Amino acid sequence: xxxxxxxxxxxxxxxxxxxxxxxxxxxxxxxxxxxxxxxxxxxxxxxxxxxxxxxxxxxxxxxxxxxxxxxxxxxxxxxxxxxxxxxxxxxxxxxxxxxxxxxxxxxxxxxxxxxxxxxxxxxxxxxxxxxxxxxxxxxxxxxxxx
Length: 146
Fold this sequence. Notes:
This protein is of the alpha+beta class. It has two helices and six strands; from the N terminus they run E-E-E-E-E-H-E-H.
């Protein structure tokens, strides 16, 4: 397996992009990009459900791990937003112009997802430990002059 085997393209070449509709139930793993009053956010739904109408829905037309695809979008979004943001909104018709790069092999995609999940797990564990130490500090400061 070759982790260096990637493809660069515009989002519209590999995905259907539309504005979310209020009554549509989207399948688990559907990715979205915030359009209205955006802070440059990208998301993925973890179960079948609705997506707010202020977002663009991105559904790949190629076989790709949806969680890997989310990471690809997350990676490309800052540069895209800096180039295409108009006032506080992104225009739905320009989302397809986002330039992305992705691994073409499913095994490489799965490895990346596994590694990123592990890193996120470590971050969560460290944040939990930090919160415990902060609670101890607050308790000690509260008892400082008691």
